[in-house]
Amino acid sequence: MARPLRIEYDGALYHVTSRGNDRKAIFKDDSDRELFLNTLAHVTERFHWICYAYCLMNNHYHLVIETPDGNLSKGMRQLNGVYTQAFNQRHGRVGHVFQGRFKGILVQKDTHFLEVCRYVVLNPVRAKTVRHPRQWKWSSYSATAGIVQPHGCLTVDEILSHFGQRKAIAHEKYRGFVQDGIGSPSIWDHLAAQSLLGVEGFAEGLRHLVTEKQQIREIPKGQRFVGRPSLEKLFSQRNRSKKSRDRLIARAVTDYGYSQMDLASFLGLHYSTISRILTTPQQRANIKT
User: Fold this and answer.
1) Per-position DSSP letters for 203-230, written without gaps between them
2) What are phi and psi of 53, to 5 degrees?
3) Whose CA is closest to 100, among 156, 23, 168?
4) By CB count within 10 A, which of 15, 88, 115, 217 is most buried?
5) Which residues contact 44 (CB under 8 A, 6 or more apart)?
6) pTM
7) Which CATH class, in words, describes the domain spanning 12-190?
8) Which of 253, 208, 241, 250 shows the shortest CA–CA distance to 227?
9) pLDDT for 127-152, tens place per residue?
10) Which residues, including other chains, have CB under 8 Å from residue 284's CB and lie 6 or more apart?
């Protein structure tokens, strides 16, 4: 079974989702939702998380979480595990509540923080469950907008600080910001390796954090080699010697995970030519140097 790439470091920001097993409901009533938020509050305190936004749908949830201690996976095991036990006990059932592993998208905070927080609270609107996010009780929108008091799991000050120093003005501008996002294009159109959201250079800057995970075959190749240079960039100097080109071909395969078919297509060479380059004694010696 494929496993998602986890890039964890101190201060990382994530958009986290977890779905019900077999698409079944993970919240049967409002008491379940309160139970989940209380569990989340306990986890944020224990693991020093900062929760900026949340939305509890019927069969899944969304969170925007910052991890000052780089411990997303540990906290998520606690969150989903404790909630599963409590849910099963409350409803007299056994077995899984959540479907497989959670999904955590690493977000570049200084460029996409507000966008992701807005995306989360607009989920009920996109699902056509309500016409406006204030009509959905189980998201962080109303608390951040100043309509209700924030739950103990939620931090609203950082979002509001982007909209002004005075709370009343910040609340009003936040409400306008969310309103402007209704019907806007998806923020996931430029997702890198199915797990990173940021501007150009963000993925490449994280490459050193995933080097040791490149041999874990259960992680999709596109995620294991996140931040690798494009073939266009790698072969940007087209006047290279044949020896230099062959060395780059070897690097593209061994260091960056490109397939031989990828290289054959890009370089306009036959697949057998790429294979022969990689298996010659001279090239094997080049790889070692």
Assistant:
1) HHHTGGGTGGGTT-TTS-HHHHTTTPPP
2) -160, 150
3) 23
4) 15
5) 50, 51, 153
6) 0.71
7) alpha beta
8) 208
9) 999 999 999 999 999 999 999 999 99
10) none
